[in-house]
Every structure is written in C-alpha cells, then in structure tokens.
Amino acid sequence: MRFTTSSNASDFTHTVASETTRQARRLTGAIRRVHPEAATTIPEPPLARFLFADRRMAWIWLLIRIYAGYAWFAAGWEKLTGTSIDIGSFGEKSPGGPWVFTTHTGAAIQGFVHGALAQTTGAHANVQGWYASFLQTFVLPHPAFWAYLITFGELAVGLGLILGVLTGIAAFFGVFMNLNYLLAGAISTNPILGFLGLFLVLAWRIAGYYGADRYLLPLIGVPWTGPLVSYTDTAQPVTLSPKTPEMLSDTDTIDPTSQSPNARNHATKPTTHASTLSRSAPIR
C-alpha cells in the first residue's frame, strides 16, 4: 500500500513537472514570436470602438454635449452680462457684476487670483507653488486681458458643444480651463465638466454627429464610417493618344523621325477627343 501511494505521488509529480515544462516552452516560444516594432498601429478594442466611434451612440453624446455646453455658456453669459441664466438661479444678478465692458474690467480676475494665492500655505496647499508663480507673473499684471479671454472662451466652448461645431476641439479647451480652475483651488462643477469633457474628446468622431460636425468634419477631410456624400458619376481615367493629322492645326507638323514606333502606330488609330469626355473623368 505504501508502495502504491509513493508511486502515485511520483507519477503526479512527474506529470506536473512535464506540464510545467511544456507550458514554459510554449510561453517562451510565444515571447520570441512577439515583434513590437512590426506593428505600426494597435487595433481599437471593440468596446471603445462602439462607445467612441459608433453612430448608434451619437444620441448619448448629444445629451452629454448639451449639458456640458449649457453649463459653459451659462458661465460665460454671466461673466458677460452679470445676469445668471443657470437653471437654479435664472435671472439673478451676479454679485460682482459683469467681468468685461465695464469701468472695473479685470477686478473679478484680480479677486480670483488673490483668493487662489491665499490657498498656497500649509503642508498640503490647495494651490501649488509653481501655479501660484504663474498667476502672479502672467495673470495678475494683465487682469483685463484674461477677463475677456476667459469670458469669450467659455462662451465659445459652450456654443461649440451645444451646436456640435468641432466638438472635440471645444471639449479639449473646456477641459483645459477646468484644469486651470482646479489648479487655482476652485472646485465647484469643474471635476464633473472635466470628466465629461475628456470623454467628449475621445468621442470626437460621433459626439457632434447630431450637429454641425455631421457636415463640417467631412468637409475638412476627417474620415467617417461610411461616406456622407455619394457621387453618381463614376470617373474613369482616360489617356489621350498623340495628335493625329486630323487634330493638327495649321502650325503643327509631324516629324516622323522624332516619333517612336509606338507613337507612329498610335497616330493611325482613332483618338478620343476631349470634347466627348465626361466632365467628371480626370484627364491624364
């Protein structure tokens, strides 16, 4: 009985060792067959292709686009007019008034920067020292410029997202502003808008499909899944043969010695006149 048990254990150990060796050899062979430099592009996963490149998902991105676009446009409108059009505070006046086209243009930016600089102290400051230096060096000395830039930048991002005009680019600049607001210590809705903006950038091909991008992107040469414009004329390349005596004008002459045998043979064959060609056919 002991002998049988020892024999079974020995066979099991041998089987495990053989299988381990076999798997190791297969893994080694698979690694040797991998040549990363041979692949120029990595295929997009099916799930990512469905979410970010399938037109069936365009209506979901439309809802996200309108929500984010309205938030950006409302923020810019309040800075431009001093009146809120946000759903929760529609019609209310902004405490600081408009940011631009006033006698105190740039005052709001100065207050924003001073509030950010006040958050640079402590072991774990909300505003990093390098960003505080940027605010002090570039933003604080030119408050009026940044007030106009931020106001009309928010309006442009909002309109771009709502109308679906270059949605990916509009979302990118929206995320860029969200990042700067977060670095300045302003939380508010910036994390949410930044999160949605990142996904809109990834879905730039279909995020604006129900909008101006449906027609604008093909015009600027962006590839789409399936053509949006179909042409009824099928262009066939046509090669014109050398001039025949019937096509020569009074000033044209034929020098037989300068023509190759093929050219002299072509001279006796019928030639397709340019007037009989379709307008869509390219002439080479």
The ordered string of helix (H) and strand (E) elements is: HHHHHHHHHHH
* DSSP, total strands: 0
**Assembly status:** single chain
Please summarize the sheet with the most strands: none
Q: Any idea what the shape is?
A: elongated
Helix content: 40-55%
Proportion of beta-strand residues: under 5%
* Rg result: 34 Å
Keywords:
single chain, 284 residues, mainly alpha, 0% strand, disordered C terminus
What would you say this structure looks like, in words?
The protein has 284 residues and is mainly alpha-helical. It has a domain at 49-219. 54% of the residues lie in helices and 0% in strands. The chain contains eleven helices and no strands. The chain has helices spanning 2-32, 46-53, 58-81, 107-117, 129-139, 143-163, 167-183, 190-202, 204-207, 213-219, 261-267.
Topology:
Blueprint lengths: L1 H31 L13 H8 L4 H24 L25 H11 L11 H11 L3 H21 L3 H17 L6 H13 L1 H4 L5 H7 L41 H7 L17
Helix pairs in contact: 3-6, 3-8, 4-5, 4-6, 6-7, 7-8
